[in-house]
Hints:
The protein is α/β, with parallel strands linked by helices. It has 24 helices and 22 strands.
Amino acid sequence: MIIASVVDLSAPVQYVKGVGPQRAEALAKVGVRTAEDLLLHLPMRYEDRRLLARIADLRPGMRAAVQGEIVAAGLRRGRRMTLFEIRLQDASGHLKALFFNQPYLADVLVRGRRVVLYGLVERDALRSRLLAMRSPQHEIAPGAAEEPGVHTGRVVAVYEKLGPLTAKPLRRILTGLAKRLPPQLEDPLPPEVRSRLGVVGRAEALRRVHVPAEDDDLDALNRFRAPGHVRLILEELLLFQIGLARRRLGRREERKGMAFEITDRTREAVKRILPFPLTSAQKRVLREIADDMRAPHPMNRLVQGDVGSGKTLVALLSMVVALENGGQAAFMAPTEILADQHFLTFRRLLRRCPYRVELLTSAVRGGEREDVLARIRSGEAQIAVGTHALIQEGVRFRHLGLAVIDEQHRFGVLQREDLRRKGYDADVLVMTATPIPRTLALTAYGELDVSLVDEKPPGRSSVRTVLRPASERREVVELVRREAAAGRQAFVVYPLVEETEKLEDVRAATEAAEEWASLLPGVRVGLLHGRMRTTEKEQVMADFSANAISVLVATTVIEVGVDVPNATVMVVEHAERFGLAQLHQLRGRVGRGQAPSTCVLLAHGRLSEEARARLDVMVRTEDGFAIAERDLEIRGPGDFFGTRQWGLPSFRVANLLRDRDLLEKARAEAFHLVAEHGSALPPPLPEFLDKGGWERRFGLARVG
Ligand code: ADP
Ligand code: MG
């Protein structure tokens, strides 16, 4: 069965003309099983091969198509290589063409045949007056009455290799398939949606991306913004966003264990904790959270805000609301070190309150651990601080009302569903200190409500950032000495493998502290690392806060949670080893007071191009969102969240870096549709959405 005029896109790819069983088997290995899979392998770019040039007009460096008659042809077989050479002649002159290791061409490109060649024009290596093409695209010239060719004579699609199929056979197969698509091919988008979005039908789109129409603009094609591209990208993004919108709607219909009340007593409790007035952004976000907590359906909210915008405090106050209503709260940090830090902060801020805060990390062992677990189980402990293992392991809460997940992007997806699976009906607050580029926020976090803390607490100064080779440390030491002499303080940060601070890393930090102490006689230098006991850490931090220590040599322990407005210098050793998000976090530790601050990035050794790009971004801007956008560009969407690509859908046509504009459009349309029609979406949308499962379609189906 060869697919003829009526094409069923779910037909096995084997039946597409030109594929066959052997190639189909190889294609299956790269995930191409149906005709549709093949059609969604879009060209990587397009070339204009419409105009046939006269040979006399060719110049070296041009890409051109020429048509003529083969007036000479010869095959030479060397030991390692065969060389096939032809001479092509048109009315204006002649041209040489060379083909390597393609001896079979001798039977195709025979003398007397009229052909079209397309390729880069060069000077011939032997006779510089002669022009030549090496391995040009070639095609038998179409007769006067025939259609224009497949590989020449039009704007042609250029493909990346797909499994066993190289560019040229792919073009032949896809051109054939695309041309045979019937216009009445089923379209998942209802006519009303199509006309609102202003897009062409599905058949037309699939045809035009492979076989551009006469009036398709070459530049638009290459930017993936020709009508066919726009349609296919919007379709994919729309189906994805509809799924998110439906999930969100579904949550509105759920009921949670307890809706919280906010009474005067709660307000009093909150005020008692507040060490300073909230910024208006904090107030707004807190109100948004409080509204969610009062609602009968569960909260699923993402709080975004730059480093130092005061999210922790907002989270703490939200936890107090839960506590005042008799619930418990869990606070989950991405690493044990950060859990430690937050635990210390909460204990300090809550010291005048009757709440019991517990720390539960792997450092809490044996009988102590049993006691902590028992207090959480009985409800005696109100706040549990730990890593995300808090929920995943055998911790039982008596009455979990609120779960806060700090710095979500640092670890695997942990959302309301995970909590539900554990039998909790709690509100969920996800916080991220690294601003997430909007495209990712709309996809990875698309079903969450979003709050933005877009204002910094008053009295922050800007931070000057400089990049220096480690060999110029003298100047840096001088800066630190000057600041210390003026009564101000500095951080010196060493990179360590987080969570697994190894003994040799600790030794390196210890040696570094000794070295800085010897470089700065008379200046008090302290050391802080993750292997120290909680009481030791508390002591060092207290000394630093009280300015009894001027220079704190630390591991990334201090990345989050340290707040010493008197610190004006941040020195990052081996800055090249840190990611942008981390560097931004570290820099956020200074510039918290009135005095001007400096962040020094010390680079050790030669920088890779990527490392240089990263560090340059830090020097150029302080804007967390701009940094996040650049980070996304440098690393790509998958790596932005770390090596595990959790929570990010895999798109076949859409691209989060390129298609932000279309994503916004698709999202607006999706949420409009779901708001208007609820779960009774206009046909044939439901059928398409549920075919094969929405989650599986976007690679979001979870294991276990
Ligand atoms: P984030 O978690 O958003 O990076 P934090 O919650 O750690 O920021 O807050 C940064 C610092 O700013 C903290 O030390 C906190 O005490 C302080 N802070 C928070 N809110 C305010 C405010 N409204 N006024 C003054 N300082 C604030
Ligand atoms: Mg924080």
